[in-house]
Design goal:
- This protein has a 3-stranded antiparallel sheet.
- It starts with a helix and ends in a 34-residue tail after the last strand.
- It is mostly beta strands.
- The radius of gyration is 13 Å and the shape is globular.
- The protein is built from 1 helix and 3 strands; from the N terminus they run H-E-E-E.
Length: about 80
């Protein structure tokens, strides 16, 4: 994940191995691991409801990338 790409994102969807949405939240910000210097970043969720909460439990189309993090502009429900 990159800071710049996450900052541009408005929402985070968490998918399971079958590409079913298990969680959805708005992205409030990002936090860098300064103490350990690992280079890892954390996504800070918003307390506001996600725009796509209705997708929880639905399967969506995901690109065939092997990267576990995917950035989507359009969300297509397939199930």
């Amino acid at each position: 994940m990159s800071f710049a790409r996450i900052i541009d994102c408005a929402e985070l969807l968490v998918l399971d191995k079958t590409d079913t949405v298990r969680a959805a939240t708005r992205v409030a910000g990002v936090k860098k691991d300064l103490d350990e210097g690992s280079g890892r970043i954390s996504i800070i969720p918003s307390k506001l409801p996600a725009k796509h909460e209705e997708l929880i439990g639905k399967k969506i189309r995901r690109p065939k990338s092997r990267n576990p993090v995917v950035y989507l502009r359009d969300i297509e429900v397939i199930d």
